[in-house]
């Protein structure tokens, strides 16, 4: 079983990766820290998963070599589950890539990372409602401290493909 | 089923309106500071202060450990002890491992176990520990993208943009990750330019460490001459190489206090890497040069190249020695200059030559690897070697000319 960590640059994918796998890859506070992918392994509920930390990308149209690496990985791993990592203070921006990945038919789970920052900045996100709309697990995380990581791992087992057509109808009927 | 861009944004808009409530942001000291660091009027003095602070820290940290600690251990204990106990003073093995039996300091003995170990552990290790600490703080605090915003206009003049400052700063630690990080640049032209400029004009932390230890009084001039070269050749390359240099829009993340655990982890990884990848190369470099010396190759080469060295660059023909080992490690190459008798200006020229003449083997392999992704190895290598040759002759020769005009060469 494979898991891809995908999201915009500097949302904390490498931090999530280190937490999930116990690896030691570089985490920094600037977009573009990770320019190549790293593979790690972890056990979730007795099942071994291969996790790939993918370089940050804004959309599925590459604008540089690091994004090209990201999209090649996505294309090469059609059977993978995607953890779509979002900056909880900029959920709207992050959802664009999440949607694109859902459209491609990947089972998706959302990690709203830097949840503590969102709280500090007075941003309230109605998680229950968001889950109802998207019909995927949505987990608030603070990767740097490890908060929410075990929920995220369990969430992976519940990730499912999203019928985007139906999603559209759901959203439009709101 | 695929949506159009417009459909996606419409959906996201609706979802966000239903689920997210932006409660209105409070102004904090952190957000005020964040604002001030990107406004040119306040940001530039702030950047100068930060970089000056880091430079001073680097100098005093490395100096403290090297001069106050390692020089004593190596010169007063390790070197005399080794010279005493190592048998066969006239043998080639002694020459390769211990070096000059009459040497009184570890810089000039030139054996693998004397100068090799001293340069690697006594000088370079403290320097890179200090440097990586600084770079980690720059990375983790979120200051790096702010610096990128500040220098953006300036770098546009040479066909790059603000974010090119990231590979530049990483290269000051080590050119290898610097070259790798050029992947975040948008076009092949930018990547190609940046790889060349980095590997030619940005000296790595290890080399700067040796420079500061050996010739602290000239280090500033050398750095200045290299930086000017970076921009002059950046300007020329930008005009000579076809391709685009697009504008970018980027995120400036908020300031975050670096987490001690992360800083520690990064430092440990780098130091481990240094012991594994760098130290063997330093020792190998010393060994190789000693073997070449014993075999008469060095003398032959320096006689052969003497006209170029003495007339064009104005440095002693023995400078060929550090240029050979510079292919393995630049820090070692600079250290070897201490054994050559030359004037201050010649020292400056030699260090500049060591920096620009050819990237070290680690950087070189990284360029080959990255070149494959960015327009083909042949094109990148061929192009960079050609440019390299021209740069070395022009920029090295120009320095000699400057020296003659100033009456110091």
Instruction: Kindly give the count of domains of chain B.
Output: 1
User: Distance between the terminal alpha carbons of chain A, to the nearest Å?
Assistant: 35 Å
- Spatial ordering of strands, largest sheet of chain A: 2-3-1-4-5-7
**Number of helices, counting only DSSP H or I runs of 4 residues or more of chain A:** 7
Mean pLDDT of chain A: 93
- Parts with pLDDT < 50 across at least 5 consecutive residues of chain A: none
Mind telling me the C-alpha Rg of chain B? 24 Å
The helicity of chain B comes to over 70%
What does this structure look like?
The complex is a heterodimer of chains A (174) and B (409). Chain A contains 7 helices and 7 strands, in the order E-H-E-E-H-E-H-E-H-E-H-E-H-H. The model of chain A has no long low-confidence stretch (mean pLDDT 93). Chain A has a 6-stranded mixed beta sheet with strand order 2-3-1-4-5-7, with helices on both faces. By secondary structure, chain A is an alpha/beta fold. Chain A has a single domain (2-172), classed as P-loop containing nucleotide triphosphate hydrolases (Rossmann fold, 3-Layer(aba) Sandwich), CATH 3.40.50.300. Chain B is mostly helical. Chain B has one domain (33-406). Helices cover 76% and strands 1% of the residues of chain B. Chain B contains 19 helices and 1 strand. The model of chain B has no long low-confidence stretch (mean pLDDT 90). Chains A and B meet through helix 2, helix 3, strand 6, helix 5 and helix 7 of A and helix 1, strand 1, helix 6 and helix 13 of B. Strand 6 (123-125) of chain A pairs antiparallel with strand 1 of chain B, so a sheet runs across the interface.
